[in-house]
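Progress against Task 2.4 (sequence-to-structure conversion) is shown through the following example record, which the project officer requested during the mid-term review.
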Amino acid sequence: MTLALHGFAVSNYYNKVKLALLEKGVPFEEVYTATGSTDPAVRAASPLAKIPFVRLEDGRTLCESSVIVEWIEATHPQPALLPADAYEAAKVRELATFVDWHLEMTARQLYGMAFFGQPALSESNLARIRRDLESRIQAFRQLARFSPYIAGEAFTLADCAAWVSLPLVSMATKAAYGEDLLAAGGLDLKPYMALVGSRPSAQKVAADRKAASAAAAKKA
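Structure tokens generated for the chain above:
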């Protein structure tokens, strides 16, 4: 039985895990699973019916993307996606947490109107989200190195989070506010996105995401 990655290829958190698996060379199969499924087997693996989750070779399951990539690192330590030094490894985790919780989850409040045709948020909500994002972008800038990767010279778990999520922050803010708040905050992501995008793992993730997006658009 091969490790199974459940979710769908348009999801950034799914692709965060997929990127780590590909970087590690871990064999896995992809199992399409929608968010919010009522399937008892899905609920048993992911009680909130969130994706991604993984079903291990022995049938056990793990949910939450950060937990999954930590498990991948612990069970498949080479090539390393965390530094050997405990402090530097913690700094990588710090950056990944900032991307997931302080940037992406804040910008996610804009996704309905930005990507899914939902009504615009109120002016007060838009203003609140903008203030939060602007302050958090500056906090992220204080931590991120971009030399050339997020945490320094090596590709790490922080890049698995950043490469799949930062473009969504850019696109959502441009749709909501008429400007990319990451760029306005002094973050030029183009060189970084191109650097990571040249990796075979990222090319695979990008191609699958594009195909899945096209299929979803055609179905809609």
